[in-house]
Design a protein that fits this description.
Bound molecules: flavin mononucleotide
CATH architecture: Roll
Distance between the termini: 39 Å
Number of domains: 1
Number of helices: 4
Strand content: 35-45%
CATH superfamily: Electron Transport, Fmn-binding Protein, Chain A
CATH class: Mainly Beta
Number of strands: 14
Length: 182
Amino acid sequence: MKLKRTDYYKLLVRPVVVVSTISEKGISNAAPFSFSSPLSFKPPLYGFSCSPEHHTWRNIKENEEFVVNIIGKDLGPLMHVLEENFSYEVNEIEKAGLNEERSKKIKPPRIREAMAWLECKLESFGEIGDHIWIVGRVLEAEVKDKFWSEVIDVETASPLCHISGEFFATEMKMKRYERALR
Ligand SMILES: Cc1cc2nc3c(=O)[nH]c(=O)nc-3n(C[C@H](O)[C@H](O)[C@H](O)COP(=O)(O)O)c2cc1C
């Protein structure tokens, strides 16, 4: 089937992260993102693509810090709250009924209900099409013990993945393919 070119992203299943930031006055903000990726091992860099109108970008421009909260399917029903366009400085973590926890290295809070967190400092950014590509240096990475066994345990953690709009993907099986030729 031939698709509209602008529908290309609907072919790609992408993990959802919730990025938390704070405003100049210290009010927390959180929003889901799925156009995102690890970018480099050394230094550890992580990037995501953010519309320039989003409060997330406004806050990161302001203080250069953000937390990437890696979430499971249990938070799926809250996506519609977190993606709501509340006015600036409405605390979306509270609106979604989630809880804040102090980060170790930066000011924006972690979301306690996430399964893992990347605390990031803005490294660089650039315009990319109709988005801003935001690159963060990972200062701290932490995961809840029960979701880790050498790598993220996808069967216990059950990451939430996005396709488009109201369409999400859940339930993964861990599969290990031997590197037979090494
Ligand atoms: C699952 C999901 C994934 C999303 N991914 C992105 C994304 O990658 N980039 C983006 O700019 N907006 C994305 N959005 C939309 C923003 O989360 C949404 O517009 C939000 O209100 C922005 O909040 P803010 O203004 O507080 O930053 C996504 C929304 C959902 C529900």
